[in-house]
Amino acid sequence: MVLAMESLCETHNDIKTLITELDLPVTGWDEKWIDVYMDISVKLLDICNALSSELLRLNQGHLLLQCALHNLESNTSEKLVRACSSLDSWRQNIGTKNPRLENCKSILEDLVDSVSLPKVKNSAKGKVLMQAMYGAKIQTVFVCSVVAAVFSGNSNNLLDLDVAKTTTWAQAFSELQTNVNGGIRDIFSHGKFPVLKELDEVYTAVKNLYPMIQDGKRPIEVEVFSNSFSDLGRRAEKLAQGLDFLTKVVDGFFKIVLSGRDALLCDLRMPDTLADPFPGSNGKRFVR
What we know:
- The chain is an all-alpha fold.
- Helices cover 73% and strands 0% of the residues.
- It has nine helices and no strands.
- The protein starts with a helix and ends in a 20-residue tail after the last helix.
- 26% of the residues are buried.
- The C terminus is likely disordered.
């Protein structure tokens, strides 16, 4: 998921570079395409916010795991009871649906409606740009739908995209989409919970450890308990690191989309400029 989001960031940065190299001034853009871009960018920011809210929720769950592990270091019955309470809260946390993720499907479906390969006449540069943006939109919707489905635990967030057969990468994308979406749907069909691998490993470790301490007494099988305790600590740390990496890259994608939108708005306020419509920006101005 981290690599997929990093790839998405690279693609959107490449689009900005391409626009610079093509030297297409904003003043020459059709107003319709500017409106479409603005609408798409808002939807992408909404998706980023939804993903960020889920990452924040999972990170809050990590604090509960840390609290449980801290209490498990003690031999007192009181501390074991507190550890059980923290583990109960963690399981409740990951089992709760995030309404912002549930709304991703409608946002993604709106994005699909904007995905088309427009015909550009009498403009070789315009044709190159439209083809590149078409590929970027396909990749963006595909990656975001997969991430939203995995986090929400809902296969309805998966979208099956039809790609124009005139593109050289249509077959490769179709095979990738079939394998990824099919694999995720297969996991859901078997009722596996949660789908995220690192989260599933923590879930299993908690399930193994919990029965040993639920009565508030120190386990008789000390070695088994110690191994389970250590295993939970390792799994929790691995999950936390993964969530941290993913949080940073989602935040990076948000800033890329926001900076491109901000820069375009700046150029529209200066109709005589011929500068790159999507240069880097400090992202401080945002008009929806």
